[in-house]
Known about the structure:
Blueprint: H1 4-20, E1 24-31, E2 37-38, E3 45-54, E4 62-72, E5 78-86, E6 95-101, E7 106-110, E8 117-119, E9 125-134, E10 144-145, E11 147-158, E12 176-178, E13 185-190, E14 194-196, E15 201-208, E16 215-220, E17 223-226, E18 231-233, E19 241-247, E20 257-259, E21 263-264, E22 266-268, E23 274-275, E24 280-283, E25 290-295, E26 302-307, E27 310-311, E28 319-322, E29 326-333, E30 339-341, E31 345-349, E32 353-357, E33 372-376
Parallel strand pairs: 2-12, 14-22, 24-31
Antiparallel strand pairs: 1-3, 3-9, 4-7, 4-8, 4-11, 5-6, 5-9, 10-12, 13-15, 15-18, 16-17, 16-19, 19-20, 19-21, 23-25, 25-28, 26-27, 26-29, 29-30, 29-31, 32-33
Amino acid sequence: MFSKKTILIFLFLLTGINVFAARYSSSSCTQLNTGTTATPGSTANQIIRVDLVGTGNNAGQSWNLSSITFSLTNSSNYSSAKLYYGTSTSFSSATLIKTISNPGSTAAFSGFSTTPTASGGSATTISLFLVVDLKSTISCNNDVIDASVASSGLNIGGNGGANNLTPTSNNPSGNGNVSSSVTPNITIASSATSICEGTFVTFTPTISNGGASPAYQWKVNGTNSGTASTFTSTTLANSDIVTCVLTSNHVCASTSTATSNVVSMTVDAYPTASITQGSSVNVCPPTTSTTLNASTNQLGATYSWKKDGNAISGASSSTYAASFGGSYIVTITNATGCSTSSSATVVNIGNSLAIAASSNLSAVCPNSTVNLTTTNSSNFTKTFTNSTSVSIPDNSTTGATSNIDVSGLPNTLTGATITVSLSINHTYNDDLEVYLLKPGGSI
């Protein structure tokens, strides 16, 4: 008959075993390659992960993986099966511990380079990863890539271990596949298709199933013109045809080459531009202006004129009546947008002079010499108009500005009288100030 002391000691020992034992607990499987594809010859294709779960351990006690066996689907497709292990569910930190070449339908792993072992004072999970390499000689036939842990195929050594175990969900749903046959394809696009001659144009491809290292052959009118991944040119001519031939190195390509769509170029020459009057025109009184005529070799062009480098508002005809001296050029633009500017034509406008003989001369003999003097009579009247209406804001210190373009006047005006007429329609009286600013901004 047990004494009370003996019974208490026995219960203590049972409690100690329950709390401190290092034990393997359970295992389960997770599919890793659902929906993925792999090409023949590819390596490191993950299929399945097996998680081995243990309870808390104490120092000196442990459990470990003795062996594990997998059943492989379409086993003739694999050149090797590999087992990795780690202490997390991330494959990136896992270590290769065994490789089986040409595994066949069954890959039985044991005798590891590093034995997966759980020890120490906390709960531990060991994750095993089954990885396969595909043979390069297999067809691109969409074969299933799958595996499962064989029934009774798991053996655990150490405390809590057992043989002939079958993990939970040892054949999880899902699978990967060998790639099917694919067709290479290429389309090309250009930065522009209607250009002026000499314009820089870039052609860019969009490809599919080109493989890891696709090759390109660009052609202009069927002649090889470049092998880079893009094509550029400044020498294209009108009606040139640009294409590209893609050479694919995709393992499952049904054909090695594909030809792109055609890009047809419209290339327009720049128009000629000149002013028919030449480099200079002299206008003498009583004539006060001259008509400048633009000339070009293209129909349907547009015109714009400049005087002394400044655009002349409204001057868009092939002719321009110049009434002020200065340097004139015309810019001619064709329908494509190609523009050419002429050389400058300098217009010189002369002034009228009053010529009088000396006051003491009453007669002049034939073939005699007479000294004449001039009095400056270069006075003239010129009207400038700005017909654009400007709204005057109410109760504003900044007001509104209206500019009158007086370009073309002589650089120096002596005794000039300037009259400015304003047409103002304003609702309120006595609250409007008007300032006249001369060129340069001063009042």
